[in-house]
Design a protein that fits this description.
With 246 residues, this protein is of the alpha+beta class. The protein contains six helices and 15 strands. Helix 1 (10-16) crosses helix 2. Bound molecules: uracil.
């Protein structure tokens, strides 16, 4: 027998999506403000099949339901925002207010520095997050790097060597690819994500990064429809691209 979609009590579903306490969710239902295919669901105790397309069937106060648990979002992170939960301004502040009260909470998939812009994924799905960042998934990350000083010429080989040791570390970096575009502009592709890695790699070869932008993860390019600060749900096809080696 095939297993159907997971079900959840309506009041818990709404509370977990940040619509308020379970009591408040019950009130929304009693008031007829929660509808499924146009019919009011007045009983907050009833179980609902939680499918990814639920927002196209369920409305809360006239608006489509927020994405159910298991969501993944792609954002064009602007500079000036942190991926931490503590040091404002946080990237989470760019999301709708209600999303901050979701259970499970939304986290960034890895981190970008405050001064780094570009492709950032966020999800409430812990298993998916670990799958993307796990070393065995080998998801590469490409960075568009602007430099203070002209490249000397040997950087590509040094980064590819698998022997570059960063200050205060005791294992060398895995080989990374560098492609020079101009004397002060290059693309760097990494498969690991050490603290401030790209900035420290260029510091190790006597240069200084003045701007850093992530434009690709796996085979997914930062979607062109996203201006800095904008985000949207990642499609299934785009998620497959993230996990697909380039
Ligand atoms: N490398 C860095 O130095 N910073 C980032 O944000 C990402 C990679």
């Amino acid at each position: 027998m095939s297993k159907g979609p997971p079900t959840m009590r309506l009041d818990r579903l709404l509370a977990n999506l940040g619509y308020g306490s379970r009591r408040e969710a019950q009130r929304l239902a009693v008031m007829g403000l929660v509808t499924l295919d146009g019919e009011a669901l007045r009983d907050g105790d009833q179980r609902i099949a939680v499918t990814p397309d639920l927002p196209s069937h369920m409305r809360v106060d006239g608006e489509p339901l927020d994405p159910p648990p298991g969501m993944i979002v792609v954002m064009n992170k602007p500079t000036g925002y942190t991926c931490s939960h503590k040091e404002p301004p946080l990237v989470y502040s760019l999301l709708p207010d209600r999303w901050r009260d979701r259970e499970p909470a939304i986290s960034t998939v890895g981190r970008l520095d405050k001064d780094t812009s570009g492709l950032l994924l966020l999800t409430d799905d812990g298993a998916l997050l670990h799958k993307i960042i796990a070393p065995r998934s080998n998801v590469s990350k490409r960075y568009d790097v602007t430099l203070d000083r002209p490249l000397r010429g040997g950087e590509e080989k040094i980064f590819a060597s698998g022997e570059l040791m960063l200050e205060s570390e005791n294992t060398p970096l895995l080989p990374a690819q560098m492609e020079a575009v101009s004397p002060t502009h290059a693309f760097v592709t990494l498969t690991e994500g050490r603290y401030h890695q790209v900035r420290r790699m260029f510091a190790a070869v006597g240069n200084h990064v003045t701007a850093l932008h992530r434009d690709r993860m796996g085979s997914l390019d930062l979607p062109a429809d996203l201006a800095p600060g904008e985000f949207r749900l990642l499609t299934e096809t785009e998620l497959a691209l993230v996990l697909q080696p380039r």
